[in-house]
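$ ./design --mode recover --in tokens.txt
reading tokens...
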């Protein structure tokens, strides 16, 4: 069986997890902070907050930025539903904007048209997605966002290790916080770094960082400098001047959530992170081979291609008779996947008023897209078999 994505767990990973399990902490221990610091260094940002999954990362990001009832936020329809759902969790309104058919990313020109067609203040933020691992040009989005007073959450779940090149020729890593207020990552098994489940929020904003830490753990703080109740209340009896809060005392100061990470997941994450660059290089090699194999093929309408800075979580081709190819590959134990069903046409969002032809480019893309096997342990022989079967299918169609 050749899946579209697959985790790679080594003996070193297993030993790292075993060591954590034998330690003093299973959750809220020092390994989490170690992972956060290592990930922040890898991405190139100031702060990182580990959470239970990528969806939790999105939810906490929306909360930290103050999304509330009726707030309008723009995102792409070609993404996993969580990119939009995080706004709904906070009572906000999701406004989809169409994709650029050449990159499959949120089209900044269409976003600009949307903003210019409404009074300033209509929208609160933008959630661009580094879909498939291709980095959004956040420098351009930041300029637009600043013009309209918007925040940016970069959904970089597909793109740790990815980057775009800014107007000064500098590489800007996905999630480095130089242009987005917050960025989020996922550690689901098919992602670049796998911890079973898990997510990370990155930022350069200290105030947002502290807010995220509070929201991650029930809204509870142990910071004595911001306690609101008196020392006397905390102790439960009269106190002398200068007495401090007792060691057990904590305060829930806002409505937060239990979106905590675990130490053994963090241990796995640290071990996986040590191979991240190696994994990216292998993904690039696989992408290059696919690109060469499908360039000039009359049955391929478009493909991910070989793009500088692409992190290649997915490799997508657009084909005719997509369902026929999908089924043919499955017959040969090749389990390609479709990314994604346009989010605005999920029944939930249809019920909110979205309908077919609202996002024509995204909908056209969906009719043809198929994601091919893409993971570092995919062998050359397996990839050649995938390419052979795709060519074979269309040769039969043409004969």
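writing sequence...
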């Amino acid at each position: 069986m050749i899946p579209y994505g697959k985790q790679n767990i080594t003996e070193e990973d297993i030993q790292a997890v075993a060591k954590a399990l034998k330690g003093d902490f299973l959750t809220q221990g020092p390994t989490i902070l170690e992972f956060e610091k290592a990930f922040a260094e890898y991405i190139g940002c100031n702060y990182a907050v580990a959470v239970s999954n990528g969806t939790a990362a999105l939810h906490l990001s929306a909360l930290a930025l103050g999304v509330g009832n009726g707030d309008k936020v723009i995102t792409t329809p070609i993404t996993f539903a969580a990119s939009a759902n995080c706004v709904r969790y906070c009572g906000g309104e999701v406004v989809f904007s169409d994709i650029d058919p050449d990159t499959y990313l949120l089209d900044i020109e269409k976003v600009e048209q949307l903003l210019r067609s409404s009074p300033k203040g209509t929208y609160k933020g933008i959630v661009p997605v580094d879909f498939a691992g291709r980095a959004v040009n956040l420098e351009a989005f930041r300029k637009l966002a600043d013009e309209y007073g918007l925040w940016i959450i970069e959904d970089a779940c597909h793109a740790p290790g990815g980057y775009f090149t800014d107007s000064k020729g500098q590489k800007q890593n996905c999630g480095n916080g130089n242009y987005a207020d917050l960025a989020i990552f996922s550690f689901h098994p098919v992602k670049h770094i796998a911890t079973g489940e898990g997510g990370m929020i990155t930022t350069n904003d200290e105030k947002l960082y502290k807010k995220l830490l509070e929201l991650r753990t029930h809204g509870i703080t142990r910071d004595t400098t911001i306690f609101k109740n008196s020392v006397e209340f905390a102790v439960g009896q009269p106190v002398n001047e200068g007495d401090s809060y007792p060691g057990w005392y904590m305060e829930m100061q806002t409505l937060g959530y239990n979106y905590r990470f675990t130490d053994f997941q963090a241990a796995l994450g640290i071990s996986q992170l040590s191979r991240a660059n190696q994994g990216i290089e292998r993904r690039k090699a696989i992408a290059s081979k696919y690109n060469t194999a499908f360039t000039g093929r009359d049955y391929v309408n478009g493909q991910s291609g070989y793009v500088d800075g692409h992190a290649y979580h997915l490799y997508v081709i657009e084909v005719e008779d997509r369902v026929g190819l999908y089924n043919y590959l499955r017959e040969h134990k090749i389990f390609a996947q479709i990314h994604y069903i346009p989010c605005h046409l999920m029944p939930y969002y249809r019920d909110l008023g979205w309908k077919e032809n609202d996002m024509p480019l995204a909908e056209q893309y969906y009719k043809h897209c198929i994601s091919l096997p893409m993971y570092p342990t995919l062998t050359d022989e397996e990839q050649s078999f995938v390419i052979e079967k795709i060519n074979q299918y269309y040769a039969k169609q043409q004969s």
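exit 0
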